[in-house]
Every structure is written in C-alpha cells, then in structure tokens.
Write a structure and sequence with these properties.
The chain has 428 residues and is an alpha+beta fold. 56% of the residues lie in helices and 18% in strands. The strands form 3 sheets. Strands 6-8-9-11-10 form a 5-stranded mixed β-sheet. Residues 228-428 form the Histidine kinase domain.
Length: 428
C-alpha cells in the first residue's frame, strides 16, 4: 500500500513530464519565429543603413559602380545589383539553406534573407542581405537540456515539499487515526479529537465523533438488552423446568401424561440451551469478552476430553489423540473452552456408533476429525439453525458459535471431507 501523497505525486509528475516534453517543440517554434522576426528587422536596418551610407558618400555613377562591385566582393552576406527589366520592385523575405563556402566539412547553415529595393543617387538597386540563423538541432538540444533540468528541479522540489507537508499538514489526520486505532467499544469512552485549521480534517473529526457517540449508545442499549434478557428469560425457564421435574416425579401420572411431560421437558431444555447460545452469540458480537488472557490450549483440551469420555463410551467411539504440550495462545479462556467442547460434541453427534474420532493439536492448528459417509453442505455449514443431520437434539447454533469465537480471536476455521472423514481445523 502507498501513502496518499505518493498516489497524488505520481500522476502529477507524469502530467508535468508530458507537458514539458510537448513544450520542447513548442518552445522551438516560438523561439524560431521570434528569431526570424528579429532577423527580418535586422536585415531591414542593414538595407537602410547601406543605402544611407552610399548616398552620404555622393559618389559619381562611375565611382558608385566600382564601389558596388567592391562591396559585393568583400561582403559575402549582402549583394547589390542593378534592377532587371522584369523586376516588379517588390520586397521578399525567405529562408534558405546552403553549404558553407569557406570550409570543406559538410556543414549546412540556415539563412534568413531579405531582398528589397534601395535608392542610391536616386537610382533603384536590388539589395539582398542574408543573416545566419542558429542551427535548429543545437536549439532543440539546448531547449531539451533546459527542460530536463527544470523537470528534475520540479521532482526534487515536490519530493522535498511532500516530505515537509506529510509531517505538518497530515499531522491532524495521523492523530485522528492513532486515536481510532486505540478506541475500544468495551470502554464506552468517547474520543476527544484535536482541533485543526484544515476544513476537511475538522469535518472528518466531527463526523467520527457523531458516529462513535451513536455506536456507543447502540452498544449500551444492546448490552443492557443482552444482560436483561439473560436474567429475565433464564429465570422463568428454570422455574418451568423445575416444575416439570417435580411433575415427572409424581406417582399419580399416567403413562400417557408422563410421556407428554417428558416431551415438554425436552423441548424446554432445548429452548433453554438455544437461549443461552443466542445470548452467547450476542455477547461475542458485542465484544463483551476480554481478549487479553494467555493460557495453555492443551490444558483445556485435556479437561474437555476427560469430561466427554462418557459420551465416547455411550456410542462405542474409538478416540485417537495427538496433543502437543505447552501450546500457549492469547485470547479468552472461557470462549476457547466452549470452542473445544462444541467441536468435539459436534463430532460425537455426527459419528455413527462404533465410529472413530481423532483430536489433533499442534503449535498452531487444532483439528477434530470423525468418521462419516457424506460430505456436509459448506453453504449451510456455519449458518444459524441450519440442520446438517436428522439429529434434533442440537440447537443448530454450535458451528455458528465456533465461527464467531474464531472471528473474535482472529482465528480461521475450515472444513473438509476426505476418505469418509469430516475434519474441522482451527488455525490459530
């Protein structure tokens, strides 16, 4: 991931580079046009000065003819000729290229030329003057070097400015981000953001303050509901179950009445278990558990295996254990114990009589595998109240609780079916 300033700087530098590259020929055309205009003005001045100087000498026609001939021989950039019969007496400006006559090296020069009419001793003459134009290749090279120099200056300047700005302009944003990282909804404390003179950051802080206050209010409401529901629902359920237990112990019940009461007791027991599981899920989702404990995972696993030994024996299930010792984890011990029990109970519930279960614990993976015949539906596997078998004794929330506990700890739980065995793996 890249910082925001880097993402802004890169397209900006690309844009500047494109503009500067395009500017090279534009610079050349503009400078070349200006040079030609200046050279045209220069040539006109030379023509006027030449005519003025010759008139000032007041030469006779013979002397003037000799002077013009001498002029043409010693001034290679100018030429004075008598007017031809077909001359229209109009000025012309043009650019020409030709080889230098005084060197043997192949060197082509450009010339800006003016052909105009001057009057000497009241007689018209065709005066032609040409001035060398700077080589276009040299001009382009100079402009390109200058452009590259300024581009490097822009890049270095932007990097320097970005470095300075990232420490000053973005400081309020970083302060806000650090406070958000440390915010814990369980503490139910508001965040006091620092005031800033940047409009966008100030609006962000105000919006975050409103959002946090709303979340704290909703969290308090949900927490109070969870606590009240836990108390108010469990009490009448416990009373009903106690009354049913007393009723089942009565000797006056007929066999039919006893059967009805027994079914009611089973339904009530399942309702109580579902209620407890739903409350547990709500507490996990509301982050009402501490996540800072350090404990030995293998110790809780051994305790669960011992406590569930009777369940293994009732279905004649063979158990294979591969448990590494001293496996330390960070999290909540109560939730971890529930995770272990739910995974093993789920395996027992779906293992046929005389089947097998294997429990494996390595340094970072806890896996429970049991024998089976068909692969479970992965789309329904961790959904609440989804029935994966005909067994109606479960609450339909066991695997959902496993998934939520893993999410709470930052662990991942996966399922696979290989060689007629269901395997649930928790990567810690």
């Amino acid at each position: 991931m890249k910082p925001l300033l880097s993402k802004i700087t890169k397209p900006f530098l690309i844009y500047v580079l494109v503009v500067l590259v395009i500017s090279i020929p534009v610079y050349y055309l503009v400078v070349d046009t200006i040079w030609k205009a200046e050279l045209d003005e220069h040539n006109k001045i030379i023509a006027e000065k030449t005519a003025y100087g010759l008139n000032k000498l007041k030469l006779t026609d013979q002397k003037l003819s000799e002077s013009i001939e001498l002029w043409n021989s010693i001034q290679p950039g100018t030429n004075i000729q008598n007017i031809k019969k077909n001359d229209l007496l109009k000025d012309s400006i043009f650019t020409s290229e030709k080889q230098k006559s005084y060197t043997k090296e192949p060197n082509i020069d450009r010339f800006r030329s003016l052909s105009t009419i001057i009057y000497v001793n009241n007689k018209p003459f065709r005066f032609t003057v040409e001035t060398n134009i700077e080589e276009s290749q040299e001009t382009i090279v100079v402009i390109a070097i200058t452009t590259v120099f300024f581009f490097i200056m822009i890049v270095l300047g932007l990097l320097f400015i970005n470095r300075r700005l990232s420490g000053s302009v973005w400081k309020p944003f970083r302060d806000t981000l650090e406070k958000l990282k440390k915010f814990n909804l369980n503490n139910e404390t508001k965040i006091e953001f620092n005031t800033t003179d940047t409009l966008e950051f100030e609006e962000l802080n105000r919006s975050l303050t409103k959002l946090i206050e709303h979340n704290i209010s909703v969290y308090k409401t949900q927490k109070e509901f969870t606590e009240n529901a836990s108390h108010e629902l469990q009490t009448p359920l416990a009373i009903l179950k106690n009354k049913l237990d007393i009723l089942l112990q009565s000797e006056d019940l007929t066999e039919k009445q006893y059967g009805i009461a027994e079914e009611m007791n089973k339904a009530l027991t399942r309702s109580s278990r579902i209620n407890k599981n739903l409350l547990l899920l709500a507490k996990i989702e509301n982050n009402q558990f501490d996540n800072s404990e350090v404990f030995l995972f293998n110790t809780f696993l051994h305790h669960s295996m011992e406590a569930l030994q009777e369940h293994f024996e009732q279905k004649y299930i063979s158990v294979k254990e591969e448990i590494v010792s001293e496996v330390k984890v960070h999290g909540n011990s109560s939730l971890t114990e529930i995770l272990i029990n739910n995974l093993i109970l789920n395996a027992i519930r779906h293992t046929p009589p005389h089947g097998s279960i294997s429990v494996t614990l390595t340094g970072s993976v806890f896996e429970v595998a049991n024998s089976g015949s068909e692969m479970l539906d992965k789309d329904l596997l961790f959904k609440r109240f989804s029935k994966l078998s005909s067994d109606s004794s479960g609450s339909g929330l066991g695997l959902s609780i496993i998934k939520e506990i893993c999410a709470f700890h930052g662990w991942t739980v996966t399922y696979r079916f290989e060689n007629n065995r269901h395997s649930f793996s928790v990567v810690m």
